[in-house]
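Lecture 7, part 2: worked example. A protein chain together with nicotinamide-adenine-dinucleotide.
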Amino acid sequence: MYKIAVAGTGYVGLVAGVCFAEVGHQVTCVDIDEKKVNVMKSGVSPIYETGLEKLMQKNYAAERIDYTTDYNSAYKNADAIFIGVGTPERRDGSANLSYIATVARQIAESIEKDCLVVVKSTVPVGTNDKVEQFIQDFLVNDVKVEVASNPEFLAQGSAVHDTLHAERIIIGTESKWAEELLMKIYKPFNLPIVSVNRRSAEMIKYASNDFLALKISYMNDIANLCELVGADVQDVAKGMSYDARIGNKFLNAGIGYGGSCFPKDTKALENIAKQHGYELRTVKAAIDVNKDQKTLLYKKASKRLITFNGLKVAVLGLTFKPGTDDLREAASLENVPLLLEQGADIYAYDPVGASNFAKVHPEGKNGKGNITYVTNVKEALDSANVCFIFTEWGEVKAVTPGKYRELMRTPLVYDGRNIYSIDEMKEAGVEYHSIGRKAVE
Ligand code: NAD
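Predicted complex, written out as structure tokens:
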């Protein structure tokens, strides 16, 4: 059992902290957000993740986890401090490392015994060398401190499962001491560990995320061509998926990737390459395709409808994917403002993301348009002139094609997630536009 502190209680930090407690370590989670800390102490998860709250309550009751804003008390006697604070995108696409720097400074001022600092946040290659130097420069006590890289691969929506059953744990270290300590901390998880040097570990994270983003953009590019040549991208993906070299995951065409990782990690790697005088052409292409893909359906619908002014527009799904309340880089955030600018009367449904969305677009009049948040799909579709599907929530997939025909004033559906088959929409008499497939008109 090790004494572990975790800096940052977002998707990465909180889930890591709870899972470390679950396997028997003594964990203190630190966050600067006092409200969040109080919420967590009361047994409530500040983020929506399946199974997280139950594990928080179980481990809090067993006194294996606690939450605090007092970083000094959490860091001073820790065997290891995991950093999971954000590394958001700067305007130029590079990663903003100011949160990491603040934590590094706080660690340097707090630690009173030898300690391994483990960076889980996604950081540009070489950052952890600098973090180690930075901590050593500001150290107050005479202790040994080293920095290791341990990038995180969880996917939001299945974060707890992905952590407890990870396909691999990547550790990047520069000494036997650091490598062995991290191995021991992860031993109870009983998962495959890949041990490499620190820079390779940092690179593995970007190379993995950007490969997945590339795969998505590639399929979207192919989907757009499918439409032009009369092929069906879902059949194409099915045919491709039997090839073990391609695999059967991440072949779904749609309105592009969002979330807190792919958009920023593609731009960050492109930026890292640029700084080294290299143009990462493949990743740049993935970024460009994704940018256009997000508003593809809006553009199609604009041509079909001339204007959205005064139309009742049903929006199904706001989050960047199902199973999360996260809106970062979601397609809805690009499309809803375009619709509002045109004077659309939007009725938006999302099972968990509506209150976060309302912080950006409050209910009621928004410029020329109007937005109302509804609690079920039926209310959104009722008398609607047009419907956009942005997120494939189970509640949205459960809507039968006949319901669009029955409830909408004009059954006109733009599906960004290819939920329905062309045949069933045709049979139900719905005008249906999706991605990379023939339209039903
Ligand atoms: P997040 O924004 O959800 O959470 C960050 C938390 O850190 C916030 O609660 C914030 O209050 C807290 N914080 C900021 N400064 C602090 C400080 N000085 N001390 C303590 N807490 C502080 O971030 P996230 O989505 O969990 O991502 C964190 C990192 O992990 C990023 O680098 C991200 O790229 C990476 N990552 C994210 C995911 C994901 O799916 N979200 C997956 C893999 C990797």
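The pocket of nicotinamide-adenine-dinucleotide is lined by residues 7-13, 30-33, 36, 84-87, 99, 102-103, 121-122, 152, 154, 156, 260-261 (CB under 6 Å). The chain has a mean pLDDT of 97. Keep this in mind for problem set question 3.
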